[in-house]
């Protein structure tokens, strides 16, 4: 792939991180690595900076953003931290878990970032570069995945450059993302903890820590509560077919475990390895010599739940361009 020459990728050295912090304070966009996927960051207290995220991604403004902090203490002036939140924070932060909490009346977070909701989604990433960038900016940082809205999420700096190009001021390169799927989104703003998006922390681990079953998206037949849960998402250019055991000769076959396939998510069937490889392999198989990407069945437990969630959206009917 050729990149436009205005794209600015830099290795995440201390000098580049300091520059990123200064750009963010100045209201500019910076892409940076987290343990899940690359994020497209902006100062979450600056309406114009947040508006620039929606613009760069082509993202509908009713879909709220996650606010990233470098220290749990930074939460207190943004949201009401409930007892349940404190318990899961102690267990899972830093890490791939986002909490939806009630907005404080005097919260400095842009209303655009939270799409006008009375809640804010917050997370503390388990990645030294991400935390250093947030700390260097001295601001809470709104950061969706650094891709055009609806497209496959980036797990390498090059993916960000391919998807957003010169729309980002600076892309910090911190190598491949360890987890590879986005954070789990847990809503703690209501009466019962509710899973809004499966992700890098498994539902099993959360339910064990909370000592109770989570309300799942499928428990309700009405519209999903997380406005970001649009039908078609994570979509490569080619059509995607799921639960395929007999691929057609002209299809790329994305496999799992010991099998004959075009690319393998994890030859040993390890679901964490599969999650880490998912988005990069969807991109790699998205080539004109194939008619479609056929995907082998993926077990629906552990990180398999997040993988299947992303694959279902990648296979969902698309809006006409
Ligand atoms: O791993 C991740 O979470 C990555 C990295 C960059 O941190 N970020 C990410 O952001 O995946 P994004 O914008 O692609 O997804 C945010 C999700 C969306 O489904 C959105 O609707 C939901 O979180 N969300 C954000 N604020 C919310 C709120 N106040 N209430 C309910 N859902 C919310
Ligand atoms: Mg995203």
UniProtKB/TrEMBL annotation:
Q: Which reaction does it catalyse?
A: L-threonine + hydrogencarbonate + ATP = L-threonylcarbamoyladenylate + diphosphate + H2O
- PROSITE patterns from the entry? YRDC
- Binding positions for L-threonine? 36, 68, 123, 183
Binding site residues for ATP: 59, 63, 119, 143, 145, 153, 197, 234
Keywords from UniProt, A to Z, are: ATP-binding, Cytoplasm, Nucleotide-binding, Nucleotidyltransferase, Transferase, tRNA processing
One example of the protein's molecular function in GO is: L-threonylcarbamoyladenylate synthase
BP GO annotations:
regulation of translational fidelity; tRNA processing
Q: Start and end of every YrdC-like domain?
A: 14-201
Presence of keyword Transport: no
One Pfam family of this chain: Sua5_yciO_yrdC
Task: Tell me where it resides.
Answer: Cytoplasm
Q: Which domain of life is it from?
A: Bacteria
Q: What is its EC number?
A: 2.7.7.87
Under the cellular component aspect of Gene Ontology, which terms does the record hold? cytoplasm
Its primary localisation, in coarse terms, equals cytoplasm
Q: Which InterPro entries match?
A: DHBP_synth_RibB-like_a/b_dom, Sua5-like_dom, Sua5/YwlC_C, Sua5_C, T(6)A37_SUA5, TC-AMP_synthase_SUA5
What PANTHER family does the record point to? SUA5, THREONYLCARBAMOYL-AMP SYNTHASE
Family designation: Belongs to the SUA5 family.
Q: What does this protein do?
A: Required for the formation of a threonylcarbamoyl group on adenosine at position 37 (t(6)A37) in tRNAs that read codons beginning with adenine.
Name of the molecule in the record:
Threonylcarbamoyl-AMP synthase
- What organism is listed for this UniProt entry? Magnetospirillum aberrantis SpK
């Amino acid at each position: 792939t050729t990149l436009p020459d205005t794209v600015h990728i830099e290795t995440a050295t201390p000098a580049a991180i300091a520059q990123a912090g200064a750009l963010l304070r100045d209201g500019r966009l910076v892409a940076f690595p987290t343990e899940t996927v690359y994020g497209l960051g902006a100062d979450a207290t600056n309406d114009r900076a947040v508006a620039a995220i929606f613009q760069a991604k082509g993202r509908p403004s009713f879909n709220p953003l996650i606010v990233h902090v470098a220290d749990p203490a930074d939460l207190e002036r943004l949201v009401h931290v409930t007892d349940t939140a404190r318990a899961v924070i102690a267990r899972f932060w830093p890490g791939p878990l986002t909490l939806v909490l009630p907005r404080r009346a005097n919260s400095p977070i842009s209303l655009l970032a939270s799409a006008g909701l009375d809640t804010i989604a917050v997370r503390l990433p388990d990645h030294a570069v991400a935390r250093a960038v947030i700390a260097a900016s001295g601001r809470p940082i709104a950061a969706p995945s650094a891709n055009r809205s609806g497209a496959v999420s980036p797990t390498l700096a090059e993916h960000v450059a391919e998807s957003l190009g010169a729309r980002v001021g600076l892309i910090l390169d911190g190598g491949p993302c360890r987890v590879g799927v986005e954070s789990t989104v847990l809503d703690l703003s209501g009466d019962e903890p509710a899973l809004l998006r499966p992700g890098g922390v498994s539902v099993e681990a959360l339910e064990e820590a909370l000592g109770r079953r989570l309300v799942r998206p499928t428990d309700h037949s009405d519209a999903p509560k997380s406005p970001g849960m649009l039908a078609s998402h994570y979509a490569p250019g080619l059509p995607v077919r799921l639960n395929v055991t007999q691929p057609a000769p002209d299809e790329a076959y994305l496999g799992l475990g010991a099998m004959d396939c075009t690319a393998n998510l994890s030859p040993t069937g390890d679901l964490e390895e599969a999650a880490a490889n998912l988005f990069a392999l969807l991109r790699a198989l998205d080539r004109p010599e194939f008619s479609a990407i056929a995907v082998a069945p993926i077990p629906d437990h552990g990180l398999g739940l997040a993988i299947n969630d992303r694959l279902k959206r990648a296979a969902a009917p698309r809006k006409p361009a």
